Amino acid sequence: MSSNDNKENDFELVRRIKHGLLVKGEEALEDMIQVARATEHPRAYEVLSGMLKNVSDAGDSLIDIHKKKHDMEKKEVPALPTTNNNVFVGSTTDLQRMLMKDVETIEHEDE
Description:
By secondary structure, this protein is an all-alpha fold. Helix content is about 80%, strand content about 0%. The protein has a domain of about 70 residues: Helix Hairpins (Orthogonal Bundle), CATH 1.10.287.
C-alpha cells in the first residue's frame, strides 16, 4: 500500500469521524435546547452555549481537514533556475557582432 493510499484512507477516516460527531452533536443540541427551555435554569443555558461552541468548532475542523488535503495534493512547481551576474568574455568587436546578429534575427522574425 502506497503512502498516498494511506493518506487518503486516513483522510476518509478522520472525515467520517468528524462528520459523525457533527451529526451527534446536532442531535444533542436539540435535546439540550428542550432541557434548557423546560427548566429555564441558567446552568442549562450555559451548557447549551458550550455545546454550540463545540459543534461549531467541529464544523470548522471538518472544513480545515479538507483544506489540508487540498494543500497536500498541490504539486510543487519547480522554480526556474536564476542566472545572476552574467559575464561576457570577449572583445568589444565580438560583442558588437553578437548584438548585430540578434538585431538581424529580430528583424527577420518581424517580417
